[in-house]
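hey team, just a heads up i'm posting the complex here instead of the shared drive bc the drive is being weird again. everything in one block, sequence lines first with there labels, then the predicted structure for the whole assembly after. its two chains so it's a bit long, scroll down
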Amino acid sequence: MLQSLRNRLILIGVLVFMAAYGLWPRTRIVRRTLPDGTVTDSAKKELNIKLGLDLQGGMHLALEIDESGGPVADLSDALDRAETVIRSRIDEFGVAEPLIQRVGTDRIIVELPGIDDPERARDIVQRSAFLEFRITDMQGVFLDALPRVDQALEKIGVKPRGQAAVGPSAIEELLGGADSADTAPDSTPSAAGDAGTGADSATTAPGGAAVFSSLLNQQGGINGEFMVLAEDYQFADSLIRLPEFQRAMPRGIDLIWGADTLSVGGRPYRPLYAVDKQPIVTGVDLTDAQAQIDPTFNQAVVNFQLNRAGGRRFGRETARHVGDYMAIVLDGKVQGRPPVIRSQIRRRGQIELGSSNITDAQDLALVLRAGALPAPIHIVEERTVGPSLGADSIRQGINAGVVAILLVVVIMAVYYRLAGLFAIGALLFYVLFSLGGLGMLEATLTLPGIAGFILSIGLAVDANVLIFERIREELALGKSPRIAVDEGFSHAMPAIVDANVTTIITAMFLFFFGTGPVKGFAVTLIIGIVASLLTAVFVTRTLFLVWLQRRAATAELSI
Amino acid sequence: MIRFFESANYDILRRRRLAYGIAIGFIVPGLILLAIRPLNLSIDFTGGTMIVVKTHDPAIRTGDIRSALVDHGVAGAEIKTFGQDNEFVIRARLEPGNETEGQSTDQTRRAVIDALDTAFGSSAYEVVLTSAVGPKVGGELRQKAIEALLMGFGVIFLYLWFRYEWRFGLAAVLATVHDIFSTLAFLSYLHLEISVFVVASLLLIVGYSLNDTIVTFDRVRENLRRFKRVKLYEILNRSINETLPRTILTSGTTLGASLALVLLGGEVLSAPLLVVTWGIVTGTFSSIFIASPILLTVERRWPGEDVRGAKDIGSGSSATVVKASSA
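-- predicted structure starts here --
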């Protein structure tokens, strides 16, 4: 008996520890990209419960390919393209944890928690993709203009990143106050030594601080390609956006960021490309792009095809640019590293990827096709919850929950006295276990979820009521408390199991058929039932055992 | 020691005709009403646009919003206050004759926003909630809801079938069918809006109501084994009475929790939780007054082995009734 009691207590201890661990506040870094391109990081320490869109506010969109202009031949491919486009714009949403997901055969779901500007999100999603081929800056026009750019920045008082003033003062360097007056709108701290990485940059403005050029690390491989340390990306980007910077730029040249971060020598770099302002051809002229493995060299390639007009222009341009690099730009981001033009290309071209990795080729083909997406995307379902409503819902949910718990506590304490106190104790474990379960399973708490949770408080005591009524009956038959408790528990079990099985069946159905919030409701209901069985049966029993152990066999049980 | 219904011995079965009468009296007019006025389906199922706005100007009333919308070509929208006096829910469904110019829900949404901007200015209000559901999605949700309900009921009935011998199963199923219809009637009387949450609540109600019936029936089975020589009529009465404290207590706590949510839980979920509240009431009623009387009728018609000891299933003599029911 003692052995089993000790095991019970140990098990309860373990469960409490697990639940507390599942629920323990974690520090989450929330990174937001504002419309002007600045990034703010904020660390929030909060309970480990993921809130649904309906509680934290946000936007849920279901998108489909618009087939009103005629059916789309390959719907699945069109969706792949649309998804690629939306993913490539993921930064623009300006939210911390966007979710983009294919659902079923014809739909894409986009979830944007805590969005401030739903109108903008709608536009971003529905805007048609824009693909361009642009020749990189082969003549080094941008390189020649770099000193002018640096001077322009110096003139308006932009200080190099990691330096307190224009022209580093020795004293400040000695004091190590490097980051004190960072003008960058970027809140990410950076090591003071970063400015030094510009040592190998191509040009340094004579006597000046080389604000911008010091950020560029030329890799030499491709003309017009520059590598910027990933941590300098936001700063460099904010400089590029300055009107003074744009005025100092040479005519006919644009600076465009690469879409992906590359790792060079173990450090993450974001490539920046100086490219011709005029694209040689755009996605409008592209008719198809497919990934293939070239059997002769066992190399992944992308074959693409242009329409007649595009082919004519492409032929003319590529003839002029043999040996030059051609950047593939989708929605203003260079995709992959620019390939070199080997020969004149007319309507059919091939891009060699230099590896046998078919996935890379497929991704690139998708990018090309995405830019040629003829059918627009339209919104078939939209749900937006303002942040204030979400906060209200949480507050109201907590109020209702507190009232429900108080009600149950009063009823149980008055009706069952000591045993009622055991049930209340079990109820506290129930609240802890079910919330901990929610945290541990990383389930999302939704508004109906809160309701399900509160409703299951009512149900949680049901098992206790069944057991206590049994114990009362056994006591009425003249049995000793110890035996009555034993038999009360064992006789009530079949009814408890039966009753919970039906609720679990319904909850499972809600889970498989429901969407979003209803699923959340089902999950909390299931967690609630499991937790209630665990606490009402196991924990209450243990409390009885602890009580009985300290009493004589004849002691009266207050129930 | 407090005890509800201590050694209660109500002759509940004798009142079964009254119980059936109450049930029919509630359900039938509700269903007739349903034929005249169809269910109030939310835009989840019909497709359409729902926008909740909160105005900063207390002078703006429902009528002002309506005329703003009509001026802007959005006709037939339904406008109601939403919880508070300065919160309004605007619904434009995609029903025939209730369409705005341009069929797309996004256009409807934009038209409503434009109308409000024009009439009151964009700083006079904020959008609290938007739901725009296209007709295709609405149709899918409708089908999914029907599937979920039918399959949910089906699986529960199957479970009962295996768990109990068929007579018990049938009685439990009929009691559950009563709950479904009674909730339907409830929805029809109050013309509550049927959203996906209400459908989820319907499934929950079925689970809950069975819960109650199962507890009673488990006791019936147990008593049948214990008292081989007692008439089924009395065994049923005895079982209901023995489980009465539990039924009332559990219903009480659950009802308390769901009422707390209706009253304090906010506007979004008040309709679904009102349905849950009703479900608890009707589920409790049916497990006491409907399930067991039906079981008695079924066993009389097709006597089963379980009640072999209770060959004489006839009406209970008043001699066995200690306390007459007045409830």
